[in-house]
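For consistency, the fold was encoded as tokens, as this record shows:
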Amino acid sequence: MRKAMLLGAILLKATYADAASPEGSAAASITAALGQGSYHLGGTADHVRIATVDRAEVDENKIVVTLEIDPGFHINANPASSDYLIPTTLNMTGQTPLRVIYPKPVRFKPKFADEALDVYEGTIRITAEFPQGALARTRYLFGTVTAQACTDVICLPPADLALPQQ
């Protein structure tokens, strides 16, 4: 837990580091740890995107949200492996799913944790099932996916990614 808090403090400091003088900054420390040549890590939304939101046939009453996670990054599974981790969560506005089905996670051993964590990598799909006829009455679906992009060294601040309108 102490390691995760320390990394979070470094990340927050890096987020507000002076871009004009990156040498010796927390951003430079993180960049060195990541082995990358850029001082800008961005945020979760720079590394995790909602690729599509597909509605199944009206009689199936479900949607499938496809997320793309950049190589070298992962997001926490739902449920998260530990209380201090932020799980990936589909949040709907105006419609309440009967259930949300998250994909099977993969095990990942980051440098900041003593044990392996359940995470998602690459392209994943989250399925939300709704009551009979709920999607037929709704033209647009509003909601977000809450996620936190991490590497094996750091976690970026979480983001709420808005479902695109189609």
The mean pLDDT is 80. The longest strand covers residues 48-55.
